[in-house]
Design brief:
Number of domains: 2
CATH class of the largest domain: Alpha Beta
Structural class: alpha+beta
Order of helices and strands: HHEEEHEEHHHEEHEHEEEHHE
Shape: globular
Number of helices: 10
Number of strands: 12
CATH architecture of the largest domain: Alpha-Beta Complex
CATH topology of the largest domain: Cathepsin B, Chain A
CATH superfamily of the largest domain: Cysteine proteinases
Distance between the termini: 131 Å
Radius of gyration: 42 Å
Length: 328
């Protein structure tokens, strides 16, 4: 029984091979006949092949229609996607639009305030660590007095404010916040509070500066803030180009009760632009500062060469160094 089944399977395979060979032979013979007919009797050739050519044309037309439909669908999808993207972009722009704040109009005397800021004054960590440690407390320290913080050890004790403290960080500076862009008003509040009998905190100074046109949206303060606020509060202010500054002249100014406002560039104090106060000297001649964004840097001595090398390259409105003195 098993041998009979095996014999049938072999016979079936042979029949399939024979059928395949005969079909291939028929195709080959048919193709050869068509080739001969193409040249021997063209009219008969076109008559015989007409159905095949009709099917081919129909298939080609169907393919072209399908491709056209696909292209139209893709175009419609692209148009829809572009419309959606445009809507998303507008929604994003609406979301990040600045807060509208109505500010007092600038007076003619404040026209100089409308200058471009060379570097953003956004508060943040410095690019480089301090080259030396903090000073000994016998040289300079922070002391509390009647609700204020005082930096001792300079030519005069300086009323210290920090823009990042909870009391001031969220206070408005125009439509910005003091904690981010308030080094200018905070530095000037320290200068005015230390060199006059007037105590003005950073929030009050920010309101004054914004009202006078010194606030620059999303950047900080226009550089005219120093001379403008100094004049408003009766302080003497003298801008000194770094090229004309000498170490001896700065030491004399700081050791006789004067302060200096310095606009710093990227380095040990900031990653962009930053106002600080130069407030005094150590016995070795290093400079003491009041940094409105760092108590640690305010208690660190800095060499004259480092301070001068990191002054901002800005050269308008007296930048980058202003010497302040008590009113006479």
């Amino acid at each position: 029984m098993r041998q009979a089944m095996e014999k049938n399977r072999v016979l079936h395979k042979r029949r399939k091979w024979v059928a395949g060979i005969l079909a291939l032979a028929a195709v080959c013979i048919g193709a050869a006949e068509l080739v001969v007919c193409r040249y021997a009797d063209p009219a008969l050739y076109w008559q015989v092949t007409a159905p095949a050519r009709a099917c081919a044309r129909a298939a080609a037309d169907t393919g072209r229609a399908a491709m056209t439909a696909a292209a139209e669908a893709a175009h419609a999808a692209a148009a829809s996607a572009a419309q959606t993207a445009a809507g998303a972009q507008q929604a994003f722009l609406d979301a990040v639009a600045p807060i509208e704040v109505t500010m007092p109009k600038k007076t003619a005397s404040r026209a100089a305030a409308a200058k471009v800021i060379d570097e953003s004054q956004l508060a943040g960590p410095s690019s480089l660590p301090a080259p030396q440690g903090m000073v000994d407390e016998t040289v300079s320290r922070l002391e509390g007095l009647e609700g204020l913080e005082l930096l001792t050890g300079g030519g005069i004790d300086v009323v210290y404010y920090n823009q990042t403290d909870e009391a001031w960080a969220s206070a408005p500076y125009g439509s910005d916040r003091l904690g981010g862009y308030g080094c200018g008003p905070t530095a000037m509040s320290m200068a005015v509070s230390s060199l006059t009998d007037e105590q003005i905190d950073p929030a009050a100074m920010a309101r004054e500066c914004a009202g006078a046109g010194y606030w620059c949206h999303g950047s900080g303060s226009y550089l005219s803030i120093v001379q403008g606020i100094a004049a408003s509060h009766g302080l003497e202010c003298r801008a000194v180009p770094p090229e004309q500054l000498t170490e001896e002249a700065l030491q004399l100014h700081l050791s006789t009760g004067g302060l200096a406002v310095a606009l710093m560039t990227r380095g040990h104090f900031t990653r962009s632009g930053h106002f600080i106060i130069l407030r005094g000297l150590t016995l070795s001649g290093d400079i003491l500062v009041a940094d409105p964004a760092s108590r640690e840097r305010s208690l660190t001595p800095w060499s004259y060469s480092l301070i001068v090398s990191e002054l901002s390259p800005s050269r308008h409105d007296g930048a980058p160094l202003w010497l302040l003195s008590r009113p006479t």
